[in-house]
Amino acid sequence: MQLRRATPYPFSAVLFDLDGVVIDTTALHYRVWERFGLTRGFVPTPAQLLASNGRPARETLREWFGADLGEDALAAMMRQVEPLVLQALETEPVSAVPGVGEFLQALRAAGVPHALGTSATPAHAERALSRLGLSEAFPVRITAANVTQGKPHPEVYLKAAAALGVAPSTCLVFEDALSGLRAARAAGASCVALTTSFPRDVLLHEAPRWIAEDFRALPADLTP
User: Fold this and answer.
1) Residue 142, CA distances (Å) to 82, 90, 99, 111 in order
2) How many CA atoms lie within 13 Å of 198's alpha carbon, on the beta-carbon side?
3) DSSP class of residue 111?
4) How far is Cα 36 from Cα 2, in angstroms, rounded to an integer?
5) Is beta strand 210-212 parallel, antiparallel or unpaired with respect to 190-194?
6) Has residue 67 got a pLDDT over 90?
7) Cis amide leading into 152 (omega within 30)
8) Considering the entire predicted model, what is its pTM?
9) Which of 21, 22, 117, 173 is the most buried (most CB within 10 A)?
10) What is the per-residue pLDDT across 185-217, written as a single tens digit (0 to 9) for each?
11) To the nearest 5 percent, what fractions of the chain are helix, strand and coil?
12) pLDDT digits (tens, 9 = 90+) for 150-176
């Protein structure tokens, strides 16, 4: 039997990034980006792959193929990348970030609102959550389709907080990527950095309030 908290949960709502926070897809995404790069004669370096974490696909494409890439060419590339991602999510092994399922259950039991705030497309988000059996876990989702400015701009988390009817400054954000941590900080939220994509020492440069390996290693006061 789970004991009730002696004090109320310290945040009004919890906001989750998707890749690297809910689903462990870091290696899968690297494989997809490598495959796509090779079709264009481009071999991304490990540093370029690492930098793609948490960024909208259009920004990665512009970095790799030129900042002056036209909108039509960019849109065509994105149409080619998306099926590769969806196919990989459908056919390759994936797993939840350890402890996230139990953490979500505890939030629901405690009545703490939560939402998804991701740079992924709606189809990507649904496919990923479906593979984990978590399609019903996030009725509130802010995806790439809902924002005009990707992370590190705070729009995704500002909109997620607004959708839940709470102030961003009262939210706790779970992130794994540098751009996501910057977005959370710009939104005024407190942030937990998970070391699922970037090394701990790199994440520490963004000064997250907490840092943890996964949801099994959270400070006691963050557990509902």
Assistant:
1) 18, 22, 22, 20
2) 24
3) T
4) 47
5) parallel
6) no
7) yes
8) 0.89
9) 117
10) 999 999 999 999 999 999 999 999 999 999 999
11) 50, 10, 40
12) 999 999 999 999 999 999 999 999 999
